[in-house]
Amino acid sequence: MSQLDLAIAADVSARHVSLVETGKSRPSAAMVLRLAERLDVPLRERNRLLLAAGHAPRYRERALDGEGLAAAHGAVAAVLRAHEPYPAVVIDRRWNIVMMNRTLERFLPGVDPALLRPPVNMLRLGLHPDGLGSRIVNLAQVRAVLRARLSRQLERTRDPELAALYEEYLAPHAGDGGASIEDEITTPMVVRHGERELKLFSTVTTFGTPQDITLEEISIESYYPVDAATEALLRALAAD
Question: What does the pLDDT look like over 171-193, one tens digit per residue?
Fold first, then answer.
């Protein structure tokens, strides 16, 4: 984005944007936030921009299960319960599991206990051969979908821990084929459970216009059955 494009989007003069960018003008906190919003900067990075400009951070980061986010925590828990008998999980910005529903817990027996030590990482749990990776029938496709998704996340955040996960689990398999980006929405995940196979697709839910770093960085991964056989098996597991 050029200085002029940003100035038009932020409804300020191109000269002022130029002065801010070259360090000849110290922007107000309001201007920092206005420019950051137009550039879609994550809340965590907006705090860093404010500090760099000599202002106090604006956005808080609190534990999801703490008193300050009790209403949000209750809403997330309700979503997880309501999604049963289908699996659902809440992950943070580094794919660490924050919460999960009882259906997903039923898939964890047999997983290497080392992978279940907190913080449990969803990406590592799903792709490691001692986790769920050995049970995913179309692992190449799933890796391709995750590679595209994680690449977009890295482009936005430059998070070193995410980069390490990418290099360990996705980069070595960049040429193994599978789903393209165009297939991402409809590509199912086929999971072997005992003698049966479940076909699932997923959706991602995030908080709208969050003003808290924690809420901006968590997402709810909800899985749905692709066919009647999968739905019947999930309901049978829930009833067991």
Answer: 988 776 555 545 555 689 999 99
Contact 201, 188 (CB under 8 A): yes
DSSP for 29-93?
HHHHHHHHHHTT--HHHHHHHHHHTT-----B---TTSGGGHHHHHHHHHHHHHHTTS-EEEE-T
The answer to whether residues 199 and 230 touch, using CB atoms and an 8 Å cutoff, is yes
d(CA 218, CA 214): 6
What's the CA gap between 81 and 156, in Å, rounded?
A: 31
- Pick from 90-99, 170-179, 223-232: least confident: 170-179
Torsion of CA 81, 86, 87, 92, to 10 degrees: -60
Q: List domains and CATH numbers for the chain.
A: 3-52 (no CATH), 71-239 (3.30.450.180)
Q: Which SS3 state, helix, strand or coil, does residue 219 take?
A: strand
What strands lie across the sheet with 189-193, from one edge to the other?
97-100, 88-91, 219-225, 196-205, 189-193
Residues making up the chain, counted from first to last: 240
Distances (CA, A) of 106 to 51, 63, 209: 45, 26, 33
Q: Phi/psi zone of residue 167: left (φ > 0), alpha (ψ -120 to 50 degrees), beta?
A: alpha
| Model confidence, pTM | 0.87
